[in-house]
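Q: Given only this backbone (141 positions), what sequence would you predict?
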């Protein structure tokens, strides 16, 4: 049984192999999420081609996805790596009507971070399936 008393950490990095494949396709020039701990990536203006792997806590994940939609409506590309959760209001009211494309990832990604025991790991798959959601407003320019 899962120990619910362990502290969950919200900072998990995208593995290089996965990011590099997306970067080859989209040529990213900004990632607002690493800024999250230093200053808020939600209140700054994003650049033209953004990669977003938001914190997965519900409130922050939703805020970054909503910001990605807002930035795409300004003529920008926002590619989000997020957990699959298709029965939510967020999916049906925000993601689905605004996404240019949704790609479901086969298998679970092994994110890089500190586990609940305080040990850095990159060998265990995440708790959720993942999807890449593309909000592309570049044709609006």
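A: Predicted residues:
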């Amino acid at each position: 049984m899962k120990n619910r008393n362990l502290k969950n950490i919200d900072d998990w990095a995208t593995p290089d192999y996965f990011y590099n494949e997306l970067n080859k396709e989209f040529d990213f020039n900004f990632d607002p999420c690493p800024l999250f701990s230093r200053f808020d990536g939600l209140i700054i203006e994003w650049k033209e081609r953004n990669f977003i792997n938001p914190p997965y806590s519900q409130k922050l994940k939703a805020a970054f996805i909503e910001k990605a939609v807002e930035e795409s409506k300004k003529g920008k590309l926002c590619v989000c790596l997020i957990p699959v959760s298709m029965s939510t209001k967020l999916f049906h009211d925000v993601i689905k009507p605004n996404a240019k494309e949704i790609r479901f990832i086969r298998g679970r990604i092994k994110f890089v971070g500190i586990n609940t025991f305080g040990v850095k790991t990159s060998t265990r798959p995440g708790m959720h399936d993942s999807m890449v959601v593309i909000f592309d407003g570049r044709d609006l320019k």
